[in-house]
Amino acid sequence: MRHTFCYYAGLYNIPLVIVQAVVGHMSPEMTKHYSMHATHKEIKESFRNMPNLLNFSQPTEKQLPASKEPERDKLAELVQVADIKKIQKAIKLLEG
């Protein structure tokens, strides 16, 4: 039960010191061991950002299509690293 509690507390971003205090671990390292598991969604998103390692040739500038709308490219870049709350606000704004 302690392992499961630590795992779910980590998923819900409960601060490590609070989880440590609740379960009675002597060190934060022990709590991290149980609470820092990656979810399937996090794993999938992380690998989506990884370059294709089996593609031995990297595209050159000439191979990449020239964007006619650089604003869309910039937005796509920002979406990859933006805080989810900002993304939610942007969606509401765009759906207007």
Could you characterize what this model shows?
By secondary structure, the protein is an all-alpha fold. It has a domain at 1-37. Helix content is 61%, strand content 0%. The chain is built from six helices and no strands. The radius of gyration is 20 Å and the shape is elongated. The relative contact order is 0.07.
Topology overview:
Elements: H1 2-11, H2 16-23, H3 28-35, H4 40-48, H5 70-81, H6 84-95
Helix pairs in contact: 1-2, 1-3, 2-3
Please describe the structure with a list of short key phrases separated by commas or semicolons.
96 residues; mainly alpha
How many helices? The count is: 6
Q: Encode the helix/strand succession as letters.
A: HHHHHH
pLDDT below 50 for ≥5 consecutive residues: which ranges?
none
In which range does the helix fraction lie?
A: 55-70%
| Global mean pLDDT | 76
Assess the beta-strand content as a share of residues.
under 5%
The total of beta strands comes to 0
Let me know the largest β-sheet: none
Q: Could you tell me how far the N terminus lies from the C terminus, measured between alpha carbons in angstroms?
A: 45 Å
Counting helices, strands and paired strands, the structural category is mainly alpha
Rg computed from alpha carbons, rounded to a whole number of angstroms: 20 Å
Instruction: Sum up the overall morphology in one term.
Output: elongated
In brief:
The chain is mainly alpha-helical and 96 residues long. It is 61% helix and 0% strand.
